[in-house]
């Protein structure tokens, strides 16, 4: 650690940081990065583009003697070490963002392998620095790239566009071959999506070299973060031992993984693998139809089960459309009339209305499908799920839990474990592939056995289902998640983040809520927590859009308008940076 009795100077090396220095020449004062720590009383009075890092402060954060009143704001542990708020209380003239930067710097200096750990000889720090980031994206002693947006005075959108020119150029090119320049509608946002080229842990790097903390995580699957060593090894080992990418025949990993998933979700059940969550929900509904020999499905307003006509019905009806009542609303042009006629729309968390609708259509219904946790962040009333279970059981209508998202995010074993409600069929996806494509539907043996080819009752097939590398990656992911404390740690990290967001919203008097369950949450600009899709329509989308742009400009990657997904790779530094960026987004230019 830094010896407080000595003055330390760290100068930026032009050899080690060519890209940063090139940046500096373009738009900032090219003076070298300089960090100075002194024991003398002094203040940071200026930090702007003409003073790169004149971070000079009284370095007295470790106090002599017991200081049990000092606790880490993040973990709540007594540390005797001053945190940002305590530092600010003592030095009120130092701007908050500077104090937080210093705190981050201090955290880095405390890490043995950090290039800012001044205990390391300079040569090793330089080496460490150049090794610690992907080629061309080397780490600075203080990450100048990350500081820049915090200093910005411009509007977030202009800021973001100025920093993501390569993404814009890519979007212009991609639009010529891919509608909207994307391979899935969900990946698009205005004015163009940011294109990435590298990822590690909880961090992403875009085509311009900007580094982001990732809260999209490929829309949920990457619960361990990007490129987790255990998962990467499992993929390599699987390829090496098989000598091929796939067999097109049964192989041992299929049954091994099926047995493991069934132990978690349905020990007496059976399952089939698919290639995606959509395929899982599609076949679950088909097999329920085969079982019930009836055409109609019941689904909940606002719930998503994949990009298929019948699942898009009433998936995102507008406020005007909801005024028509709970009528089936086509979610995509080209939806055939028979799909609308055969879809019953239900209101989430409204048991009376749901029960009445199911009863009055029981003769025609093949199944009821739902996200047991709406969009993975709106919790069900426990009584609602139990009531739904009873009414569907009364009529022998298969109840399908779509746990593609919630399966290993809400709890290990999904909402059915958390709420102790057993559905007839369960759909899985996302996390079970460990970052590779994989889905599954599982459940009651008397229903699943219809898919036994010897019986010939129900046909389901998929060339890539049971993809060996996905099985290996999925099992490695579950191995990590099952380690003692791993899942709890993930939940704790998420709570730290959501409570931090709530605190900042309160401090800034911003009327917004942070609904969340497990390791997924969202931010809605409204003054009460939503109980279902209709409630969430009250939220001010324009405000959320400004926040999202502002976060992106501060290198926090969230897909605009979408939930935040947290991973085990989100460490304390990432969480602090996120909370700082969030607070600055609330107070910054909007
Ligand atoms: C609850 C739920 N079901 C199904 C799907 C579809 O999964 P996939 O995109 O893997 O086809 C999704 C995707 O986001 C989902 O969130």
Give a written overview of the molecule.
This protein has helices at residues 18-27, 84-90, 96-109, 122-131, 144-151, 156-163, 165-174, 229-242, 252-265, 277-292, 309-312, 319-322, 337-341, 351-361, 382-394, 414-419, 445-448, 468-482, 486-507, 533-536, 541-553, 572-587, and strands at residues 8-11, 34-38, 55-58, 196-200, 203-206, 211-214, 270-274, 296-300, 343-346, 365-370, 399-402, 425-428, 439-443, 516-517, 520-521, 556-557, 564-565. With 590 residues, the protein is an alpha/beta fold. The chain has 3 domains: 8-148, no CATH class; 198-227 and 484-587, Alpha-Beta Complex (Aspartate Aminotransferase, domain 1), CATH 3.90.1150.10; 229-482, Aspartate Aminotransferase, domain 2 (3-Layer(aba) Sandwich), CATH 3.40.640.10. The chain has a 7-stranded mixed sheet, with helices on both faces. It is globular and about 75 Å long. The structure holds pyridoxal-5'-phosphate. The site of pyridoxal-5'-phosphate has 13 residues, from α10.
């Amino acid at each position: 650690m830094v010896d407080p009795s000595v003055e330390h100077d760290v100068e930026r090396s032009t050899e080690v940081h060519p890209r940063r220095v090139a940046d500096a020449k373009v738009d900032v004062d090219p003076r070298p990065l300089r960090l100075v720590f002194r024991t003398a009383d002094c203040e940071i009075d200026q930090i702007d583009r003409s003073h790169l890092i004149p971070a000079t402060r009284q370095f007295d954060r470790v106090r002599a003697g017991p200081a049990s009143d000092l606790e880490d704001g993040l973990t709540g542990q007594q540390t005797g070490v001053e945190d940002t708020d305590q530092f600010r209380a003592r030095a009120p003239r130092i701007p908050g963002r500077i104090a937080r930067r210093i705190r981050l710097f201090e955290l880095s200096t405390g890490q043995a392998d950090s290039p800012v750990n001044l205990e390391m000889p300079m040569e090793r720090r330089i080496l460490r620095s150049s090794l610690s980031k992907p080629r061309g994206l080397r780490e600075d002693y203080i990450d100048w790239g990350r500081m820049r947006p915090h200093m910005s005075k411009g509007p977030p959108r202009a800021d973001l566009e100025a920093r993501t020119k390569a993404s814009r150029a890519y979007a212009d090119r991609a639009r010529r071959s891919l509608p909207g320049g994307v391979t899935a509608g969900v990946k698009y946002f205005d004015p163009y999506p940011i294109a990435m080229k590298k990822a590690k842990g909880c961090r992403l790097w875009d085509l311009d070299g900007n580094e982001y903390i990732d809260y999209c995580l490929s829309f949920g699957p990457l619960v361990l973060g990007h490129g987790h060593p255990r998962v990467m090894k499992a993929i390599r080992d699987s390829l090496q031992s098989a000598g091929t990418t796939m067999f097109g025949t049964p192989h041992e990993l299929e049954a091994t993984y099926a047995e493991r998933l069934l132990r978690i979700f349905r020990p007496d059940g059976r399952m089939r693998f698919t290639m995606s969550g959509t395929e899982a929900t599609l076949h679950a509904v088909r097999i329920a139809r085969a079982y019930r020999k009836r055409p109609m499905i019941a689904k909940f307003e606002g719930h998503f089960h994949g990009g298929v006509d019948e699942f898009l019905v009433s998936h995102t009806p507008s406020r005007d459309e909801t005024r028509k009542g709970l009528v089936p609303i086509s979610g995509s042009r080209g939806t055939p009339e028979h799909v609308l006629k055969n879809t019953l729309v239900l209101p989430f968390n409204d048991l009376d209305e749901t029960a009445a609708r199911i009863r009055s259509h029981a003769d025609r219904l093949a199944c009821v499908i739902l996200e047991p946790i709406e969009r993975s962040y709106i919790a069900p009333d426990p009584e609602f799920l139990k009531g739904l279970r009873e009414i569907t059981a009364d009529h022998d209508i298969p109840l399908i839990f779509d746990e593609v998202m919630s399966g290993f995010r809400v709890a290990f074993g999904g909402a059915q474990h958390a709420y102790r409600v057993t559905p007839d069929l369960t759909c899985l996806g996302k996390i079970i592939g460990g970052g590779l494509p994989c889905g599954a539907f599982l459940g009651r043996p008397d229903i699943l056995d219809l898919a036994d080819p010897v019986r010939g009752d129900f046909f389901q097939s998929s060339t890539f289902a049971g993809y060996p590398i996905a099985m290996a990656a999925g099992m490695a992911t579950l191995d990590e998640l099952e380690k003692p404390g791993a899942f709890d740690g993930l939940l704790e990290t998420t709570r730290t983040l959501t409570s931090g967001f709530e605190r900042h919203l309160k401090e800034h008097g911003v009327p917004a809520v942070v609904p969340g369950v497990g390791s997924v949450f969202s931010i809605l600009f409204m003054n009460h927590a939503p109980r279902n899709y209709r409630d969430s329509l009250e939220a001010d989308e324009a405000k959320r859009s400004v926040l999202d742009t502002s976060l992106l400009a501060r290198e926090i990657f969230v897909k605009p308008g979408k939930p935040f997904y947290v991973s085990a790779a989100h460490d304390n530094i990432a969480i602090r940076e996120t909370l700082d960026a969030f607070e600055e987004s609330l107070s910054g230019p909007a």
